[in-house]
Specification:
- By secondary structure, the chain is of the alpha/beta class.
- Among the domains are: 3-89, Rossmann fold (3-Layer(aba) Sandwich), CATH 3.40.50; 110-178, Dna Ligase, domain 1, CATH 3.30.1490.
- It has helices at 17-35, 45-49, 66-75, 86-91, 94-104, 122-128, 159-168, 214-227, 259-276; strands at residues 3-8, 39-44, 58-61, 81-83, 111-115, 136-140, 151-154, 173-178, 184-190, 195-200, 231-238, 244-251.
- The protein has a four-stranded parallel sheet with strand order 2-1-3-4.
- Strand 3 (58-61), helix 3 and strand 4 form a beta-alpha-beta unit.
- It starts with a strand and ends in an 8-residue tail after the last helix.
Amino acid sequence: MKRLVALYRSPAYSPNLHLQNDRAILDAVVERLAGRGWCVAHASEAGVAAGQLPPGDLYLNMCQGAEASDRLREMLPAGARCINTPSAVLACHRHHLIPRLHRSGVPFPATVLVATSGPVRDERTAAVSGGNGDPIWVKRGDVHAQSAEDVAAVPASELGAALARFAERGIGRVALQRHVPGPVVKFYGVARGEFFHSYRADAPDRTAPRPHAERLRVLAERAARALGLAVYGGDAVLSAPDAPVLIDLNDWPSFAPVRAAAAAAIARYAHRYALKGRYSCSTP
């Protein structure tokens, strides 16, 4: 019997309702794979970081921290399959994500990494300031948001104070991103076209497919391939009705509005990948 190991994300990376939703999507995928005959074991991100990893043939990896990802890279059994790979997860940390996305050629706004202490260099802020009164987005420079304070939009004149607030919280590096005007669209995807869903962030119904989403799907899949992600989500801005600009990308989101359909798609993909050994995404 094939052995499946589900690796659950640390609560530190799933604040508030995200903890319940993140666990729910992984549980739903595991349930479907168990129905296909997989023998299931479970492990926590803290356990992985401590060097504890059950033996398996397929790993469903929601670990997000650097410590667990580094340990997982060391401990994965030879020949075992992993979705998402720890290298792909680490590529989503913003200090890795930004150069990867800039190199990928996908539409992505000017974004720079800066230290939260020391003087603010004018040439760095000039790269991300539109000069038209738009705010500058300030995002923590490592993992994705763990609290509402980890992402802020501030006027250029208040940037120094914003950096100081991040520094006071022990965050030594942030990403500064140029504001892109337009409605925000959220999306979820699974590799090889197995699943894709998007919706406007202000839409009352998040389950209804967004019309004319093909360009967003192509953009999202291209960005996911650049990072090596098989299960992914993110945010884009429609700077024009069908001209999406990617503003963020992350590994294994909760898929909360479309959990059942996404879980079925992830399970199909994982089962096929494990049996055939074909992983469509590779980290360059």
